[in-house]
Structures are given as C-alpha cells and as structure tokens.
C-alpha cells in the first residue's frame, strides 16, 4: 500500500481508501453528506473530537454520526477505515461508510445515549447503577478482547478512555474511535511509536519509550474501571481547579490499596451517586482487577481475555445483588 506523506493528494487518499474497503461500507458523495446535515449546519453538530467535528444525520434509512476530519488527519482516517471495514463485533461501533471528497468523512451508526465520560461526570444523565456499570465494563472488555485475540492481524486501540466508550439506549457499550489503532502480528514484539494519547491513561512504558503492545490497552482499561468505581476523571485536580497538585486516578487507588485499612479508604473513593446500592465485595473485586490492569510492568498485566472472565463473574454477582435489592437497601454484612 502507498505510504501516506505530507505530499499525498486527495486523489491518492481516495485510491488508498478504495483499496481497503469492503462491501459492507458505502462510499458516499460529498453532496449526500452535505444534504443530510443541511450544509453541516451547527444544529446537526453533536460533538468535537481531536480529529474533527461530528454531525448527526439520517442516511440510507438509518440514524448516523458523520465525523468530518481535516486532511491532515489522513493517517487516522485510513487507520479507522481499515479496522472498521474488516472487524465487526457487537461491542465495536459500526462503520456505515465514508467519503473522501472535499474533506475526509467517516459515517458511523448513531449511538444515541452519549459516552461513558458523560454518564459519569456530565449533566442531564441518570446515574448508572452498579449493575449497569459492570455491564458497561464487560461490554467494553469484550470489544477489546475481540480485536486483541480474534482478528488476524490483531489490533491495538491505543486510545481507550471513558469518552471513547459509547452507550446505547439499552445502556450497552460499544468501543469507538479507532483513529490511533495499530496492527501487529500475534505474539509479535512491542512496537515503538510516537506518543499520541490522552494523559492519565498512558502506561509507563508508553510514556518513556513509546512502546506499544496489547498491554497498553489493558492499562487504559484499568483506568476506566477506576472511573466506573469513583466517577472521577483519569486526572484528579484539586477542588480549586488548579493544575498544580493534580494526581492520577491510578495513584489515588494505589495509595488506598496500600493503606492500613484499604476498605475504609476505598469507601471514600466510591461514586457517591451509587448511595449504598452496591455489593462491597464486587467493588473490591473490580478494584483489584483495575489494579492488576495498571501494573507498572506490562508483563504482569492480565490479557483482555482474563479481564472478560473476571467481569463475567462480577456481572453475575451484580445481577444477583439487583434481584435481592430492588431499592436502595443495604444488606451487606460489616457495613
């Protein structure tokens, strides 16, 4: 495949895109996207990401989200197109099509209930129950396990974070935003690459050396688990909002787990919106899983397959808890 360089033309990009697409994706014309968004009207704009704006539209009989990307984002556009035209899973956002006229466009299924970051810290969203939080974690883990274990070649997402986990109307999760994805051979050595990710989710080996392996995604997923428990940002800032004194969420939980009474410290970190409606043993299990995922040594982190197994157990525990506790009733011993 032709390599993308600063001199790559729009015709080159169209040729590259055509070379990697399959029948399940549709090539739209610019006019179709222009008409569907009423000229990319501000009233259709539903988001703004690192690589461009996102617009709502209805295309080919279904609701869609159109990501309009700058021409400078060619590498990210082609990476996402390559992954989502070849990889299909219930817990990965589905690509409907693309366009390379005038700009770069990716057209996805529209996921109508925002992202996990918004549910945890935004306004206008119902608080997630503990069972819903575990289900979102399991859905996301299954999506990651699929690209890590069941595709050839395997893929490394490289930008797992709560903002890239979309939530549908049934509170089920789908992993999105594959613009930084790298592919690697099964069992291959770590790749070295320039550091391009979100601060707070990056493991030590990536920050120091730019090393990329599947364990980079595992680390970031561990941070997401901590977010689900606490509803805090990956970087926790002082109450006055200043940058000085900011600490990583990983550090806060590690500090708690090494204290003389971890359970007492952990209760202070749990999302207050959960009230008393959670099983403490399940919180502890998820905390220890997140701690394993965020080990400093990547070799000590579990695979996503192992993470899925633990979360399946947690899901069963949480569903049983919900059945026994229809209201905010706490029957856990010792609390």
From TrEMBL:
It is a single-pass membrane protein. It catalyses: L-seryl-[protein] + ATP = O-phospho-L-seryl-[protein] + ADP + H(+); L-threonyl-[protein] + ATP = O-phospho-L-threonyl-[protein] + ADP + H(+). GO terms for biological process: innate immune response. It comes from the Eukaryota. It holds the Pfam family PK_Tyr_Ser-Thr. Residues 40-314 form the Protein kinase domain. The keyword Transmembrane applies. Its EC number is 2.7.11.1. Keywords: ATP-binding, Cell membrane, Chitin-binding, Disulfide bond, Glycoprotein, Kinase, Membrane, Nucleotide-binding, Receptor, Serine/threonine-protein kinase, Signal, Transferase, Transmembrane, Transmembrane helix. It is found in: Cell membrane. SUPFAM superfamilies: Protein kinase-like (PK-like). ATP binds at residue 68. SMART domains: S_TKc. GO terms for cellular component: plasma membrane. One of its GO terms (molecular function) is protein serine/threonine kinase activity. Belongs to the protein kinase superfamily. This is non-specific serine/threonine protein kinase. It comes from Triticum aestivum (Wheat). The lineage of its organism: Eukaryota, Viridiplantae, Streptophyta, Embryophyta, Tracheophyta.
């Amino acid at each position: 495949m032709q390599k993308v360089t600063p001199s790559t033309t729009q015709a080159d990009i169209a040729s590259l895109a055509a070379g990697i697409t399959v029948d399940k994706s549709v090539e739209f014309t610019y006019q179709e996207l222009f008409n569907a968004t009423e000229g990319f009207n501000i009233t259709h704009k539903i988001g703004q990401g690192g690589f461009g704006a996102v617009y709502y539209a209805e295309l080919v009989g279904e609701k869609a989200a159109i990501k309009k990307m700058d021409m400078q984002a060619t590498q990210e556009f082609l990476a996402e197109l390559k992954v989502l035209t070849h990889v299909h899973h219930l817990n990965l956002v589905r690509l409907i099509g693309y366009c390379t006229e005038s700009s770069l466009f990716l057209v996805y299924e529209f996921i109508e209930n925002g992202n996990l970051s918004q549910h945890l810290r935004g306004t206008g969203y119902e608080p997630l129950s503990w069972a819903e939080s575990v289900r979102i974690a399991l859905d996301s883990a299954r999506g990651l396990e699929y690209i890590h274990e069941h595709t050839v070649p395997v893929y490394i997402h490289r930008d797992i974070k709560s903002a890239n986990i979309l939530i549908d109307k049934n509170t089920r999760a789908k992993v999105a935003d594959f613009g930084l994805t790298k592919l690697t051979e099964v069992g291959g050595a770590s790749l070295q690459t320039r550091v391009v990710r979100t601060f707070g989710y990056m493991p030590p080996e990536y920050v120091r050396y730019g090393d990329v392996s599947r364990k980079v995604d595992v680390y970031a997923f561990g941070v997401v688990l901590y977010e689900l428990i606490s509803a805090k940002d990956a970087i926790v800032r002082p109450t006055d909002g200043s940058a000085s004194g900011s600490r990583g969420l990983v550090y806060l939980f590690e500090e708690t787990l090494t204290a003389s009474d971890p359970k007492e410290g952990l209760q202070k970190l749990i999302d207050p919106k959960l009230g008393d409606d959670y099983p403490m043993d399940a919180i502890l299990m998820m905390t220890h899983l997140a701690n394993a995922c965020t080990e400093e040594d990547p070799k000590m982190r579990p695979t996503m397959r192992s993470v899925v197994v633990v979360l399946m157990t947690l899901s069963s525990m949480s569903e049983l808890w919900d059945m026994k506790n229809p209201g905010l009733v706490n029957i856990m011993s010792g609390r």
